[in-house]
Design goal:
Number of domains: 2
Shape: globular
CATH topology of the largest domain: Farnesyl Diphosphate Synthase
Structural class: mainly alpha
Helix content: 55-70%
CATH superfamily of the largest domain: Farnesyl Diphosphate Synthase
Distance between the termini: 53 Å
Radius of gyration: 19 Å
Low-confidence stretches: 57-66, 313-333
CATH class of the largest domain: Mainly Alpha
Strand content: under 5%
Length: about 325
């Protein structure tokens, strides 16, 4: 059954409110039209992630592993293809995807890049190098930043590249926060090269006796995340003011999670790190101040850097390797 626009928007809003309280708070700063489209896109992304993992809004529904994940992924590809081709869709999340892609002319290959990211989990991909980890981060989060920026009206490569930077930074933060939980589920996103250097067997990442060494690896990863957060600032400055405010707020909130991991040290995983309502309100205020200064005294200049960026005209392998090569010259990377 096709839902009316209002019903579809209310459903997608409830998904983001439950699935990501941090992003839900930031999204309130968007204008109504942008907010509705952001929620629709988020609902589809969340649905695909949950279906692959056998979860409901990030929570395992019955304690069991998802059945036939490869078949489930193919089902998602098929339904996504039908939605993008304009076929009538019964499921609200695919109705929403169809609407937002059509309304904002989001290139279809970006949609499938996200599914390619989920395929990495389905296939049990191993992340040997930093470049491999960044490739995963782009596909499950960086490309979401690109699509979100398209909703906000961004079309220039320079802005979209910085949106990918922010998405990658957010995912690196998620990896750092959830590293033990992920390892217990058999998913290791930390570069295996770094784990070997720290003396941590891949099979024992979650073992308590390796907390100090794992923290050292996570600290390296968060240093990389900081570079991506810094690079993303130039893209945020190019967005419309309300969009910039919302995105900057999300950037501040997630960045704080990484800094809290660093503050807690090896005890960071004794309980899940989250931001309080007061911290979110503070992030909204700090973001407004930052943007006010930026827009009063001039836009933030684009930083010259060699960060990994989304594959475009140049070869994907060169794009994936550029940041890792730059890092090899910094602090023992």
């Amino acid at each position: 059954m096709t839902l009316r626009d209002g019903d579809l928007e209310r459903l997608s809003e409830s998904v983001i409110r439950t699935g990501s309280k941090s992003f839900a708070a930031a999204s309130k700063l968007f204008d109504a039209r942008t907010r509705a489209s952001v929620h629709l896109l988020y609902a589809w992304c969340r649905h695909c992630d949950d279906v692959i993992d056998g979860q409901d809004l990030g929570i395992r529904s019955d304690g069991s592993a998802p059945s036939a994940p490869a078949g489930t992924l193919q089902m998602l590809r098929d339904r996504t293809t039908q939605a993008l081709e304009g076929a009538p869709m019964r499921e609200p999340v695919f109705q929403g995807l169809q609407r937002v892609v059509q309304e904002h002319a989001i290139p279809h290959h970006h949609v499938f890049e996200l599914l390619d990211g989920f395929a990495m989990d389905v296939d049990g991909r191993e992340y040997e190098s930093l470049s491999d980890t960044l490739d995963y981060c782009y596909h499950v989060a960086g490309v979401v930043g690109v699509m979100m920026s398209a909703i906000m009206g961004a079309r220039e490569d320079a802005t979209l590249d910085r949106a990918a930077d922010l998405g990658i930074a957010l995912q690196l933060t998620n990896i750092a926060r959830d590293v033990i939980e992920d390892a217990q589920a058999g998913r290791i996103y930390l570069p295996r090269q770094w784990l070997r250097e720290a003396g941590v067997p891949v099979a024992d990442v979650a073992a308590p006796q390796h907390r100090q060494a794992v923290f050292r690896v996570v600290a390296r990863l968060l240093d990389v995340a900081e570079q991506f957060y810094e690079a993303s600032e130039a893209g945020i400055a190019r967005l419309p003011v309300r969009c910039a405010w919302a995105v900057e707020t999300a950037r501040v909130v997630y960045r704080q999670i990484g800094r809290e991991v660093m503050k807690r040290g090896p005890g960071a995983w004794e309980e899940r790190i989250a931001t309080s309502s007061a911290q979110k309100l503070g992030a909204i205020g700090r973001s407004a101040l930052t943007l006010g200064i930026t827009r009063t005294w001039g836009k933030v200049p684009a930083r010259e850097h060699n960060l990994w960026t989304r594959p475009k005209a140049r070869g994907a392998d060169d794009a994936r390797a550029s940041f890792a090569n730059a890092c090899s010259n910094r602090q023992g990377y």
